[in-house]
Amino acid sequence: MSPASDPASDPHGMAIDLTSTPRRSLFGRLGATQEAWIAVAILVLGLLVTLVSPKFATSGNLLNVLQNACFIGIMALGMTPVIISGGIDISVGSILGLCGIALGIVLVAGWPLPVAIPAILLLGALCGAFNGAVIAYLKLPPFVVTLATLSMGRSLALVISQNTVFYEFGTWTEQLLSLGGGKTFGLPNVIFALIAGIVVLHLLLTTTRWGRYVYAVGGNEHAARLCGIPVELIKVSTYAFSGLMAAVAAIFLVGWLGAVTNAIGTGYELQVIAATVIGGASLVGGFGTAIGAAIGAVLVEVIRNSLLIAGVNPFWQGFFVGSFILGAVLLERVRSSKV
């Protein structure tokens, strides 16, 4: 038996196992997660707004909050692996806009919806993969690259649409509106899309080699490379996944709105990054969860909705969201220092 594993004895001769560690209760483990604290913040904020205006707690408003949060939440799921790997993608709003415009164009051109949807998903993934390839292989900063492609995406949307607004989508208009704006079991379809995305990303991050590699690259890229991990391919795949989820959000958003313009998705990148960071993803890489991204998106939407219902000037929205970002980062810093 090695010295490290030998039990020590107290003055009364009782054996003490120095290798044992106290097990925290379920409540203690939940309390240590940022997702739990954000969920508490949502409940507290919702309660406070309900005291000011009972309209907030009505079933119709709560369902509207959840539905609006789903679009940001789906994109935040795509952003999560990017941030975990140590990157950032501020072009997701433009990718959503480009995919939305492309969806309108191909449907008006007569493409059947079952063909158009995979094509749009592929377009989103390719846009993301382009970001990842430039970042990974040309060694350029993610912020600069995605800032450039943000502008490029908006410009391409204007070019291919010729600044046209699409209100009709050919013979598949009804099916698209039913997909994006319809309900199943009384709940908007986009909610089920978000739930499916949470499950898929959680399994990818926790049960697959790809997920372990993403965390490894974000935790220590140099060490990951020495271990034989294909760092460049992992980075490309995370950005491709981000683009894919932006395309998913575009399909549901266009179906919900019933129209698509070149302005669709403008400013979404800030809300997506806010939701991901508030949900616990570390901007320095190495940490983030699927459920955290979704909860962060709900909090961002609750803030927006609360300000409107409480009669607060909507210009304050950015201030409050930014305050929660700072609070989330500070909470993560404090929580990490205790580990």
**Rg on CA atoms, Å:** 23 Å
Please identify the oligomeric state.
Answer: single chain
Top-tier CATH class: Mainly Alpha
Residue-averaged pLDDT, rounded?
85
> Could you state the order of secondary-structure elements as H and E?
EEHHHHHHHEEHHHHHHH
From the 3D coordinates, which CATH architecture would you assign?
A: Orthogonal Bundle
Helix content: 55-70%
**Widest sheet: strand ordering:** 1-2
Q: Distance N terminus to C terminus?
A: 29 Å
Largest sheet: 2 strands, antiparallel
Number of strands: 4
Low-confidence stretches: 1-22
Give the tally of structural domains: 1
Per the CATH scheme, the topology name is ABC transporter involved in vitamin B12 uptake, BtuC
Shape: globular
In DSSP terms (H or I, runs of 4 or more residues), the helix count works out at: 14
Structural class: mainly alpha
Please give the structural blueprint.
Layout: E1 8-9, E2 15-16, H1 26-31, H2 34-52, H3 59-84, H4 92-108, H5 113-137, H6 142-161, H7 173-181, E3 183-184, E4 187-188, H8 189-207, H9 209-219, H10 221-226, H11 231-257, H12 268-278, H13 290-309, H14 317-337
Antiparallel strand pairs: 1-2, 3-4
Descriptive account of the structure:
- This protein is mainly alpha-helical and 339 residues long.
- The chain has one domain (35-42, 56-337): ABC transporter involved in vitamin B12 uptake, BtuC, CATH 1.10.3470.
- 70% of the residues lie in helices and 2% in strands.
- It is built from 14 helices and four strands.
- The strands form two sheets. The chain has a two-stranded antiparallel ribbon with strand order 1-2. A two-stranded antiparallel ribbon has the order 3-4.
- The radius of gyration is 23 Å and the shape is globular.
